[in-house]
Write a structure and sequence with these properties.
The chain has 249 residues and is α+β, with helices and mostly antiparallel strands. It has two domains: 10-116, Alpha Horseshoe (Serine Threonine Protein Phosphatase 5, Tetratricopeptide repeat), CATH 1.25.40.10; 127-242, Rifampin ADP-ribosyltransferase domain (ADP-ribosylation fold, Alpha-Beta Barrel), CATH 3.20.170. It is 45% helix and 12% strand. The strands form two sheets. It has a four-stranded antiparallel sheet. The longest helix is centred in the N-terminal third of the chain and has 18 residues, at 61-78. It is globular. The protein starts with 9 loop residues before the first helix and ends in a 7-residue tail after the last helix.
Amino acid sequence: MSVKFDPRNPVIQLCMKGMVLEESGNLGDAINVFYEAWDQTSNDFEKFIVAYHLGLRQKNVYDKLKWMEKSLAFALKINDENVKSAYPTLYLNMAKCYETLNDTENASKNFELSHLYQGKPTDTGPFYHGTKADLQVGDLLTAGKESNYQKDLKMNHIYFTANINGAGLAAALAKGEGKERVYIVEPTGEFENDPNVTDKRFPGNLTRSYRSQEPLKIIGEIKDWDKLTDSERQEWDEKLAKNKGQIIN
């Protein structure tokens, strides 16, 4: 089963609504929204995500453990590159539950599994980079450019993704007046999960977003992806204007 993280998915949108409610202090309403999301799940990928969010928000450690175990079970069943990055987080949450319950054997086992699944990404792509720059096959994309999201910040890494629509979003938000372009790229060196998205709102690196200090080589260009509507672009512009988070550079 091949799955992709889609922010337009109704279940994903309910999860994001729940997070916004929680951040505004309405935890009770937020939990109700997450249960609503659970009732609307229709596949293992959605169940894996919602179970994780319900687990995070349980006060009772037994309930937390139950939902984390459910989330892990669905993630393992999917067995897809999109969810493997979540394994360390899920095992770590379970380990902490067992630790609270003074079950040292299971706590140790899950801490070890969390550590086992950490490390360099195993994603083999294909990979994409979104920009407004007019480039050619064979050109190299390098770090050191100014951030699209934070003024006067020179980026120490070059960013890319295995999610074509994520690259399309980056192209739409990129600075400049040029045409939005999504290039197929090939890393020339080691790369890592993008810490700005990994384990932030969703477990692991579901958007398959990466970064490298080594150049990316352009090997092609994509002409077709889900472009933002005018209203979606306005929403993103507003989000970026309000965003006060610090970029991990």
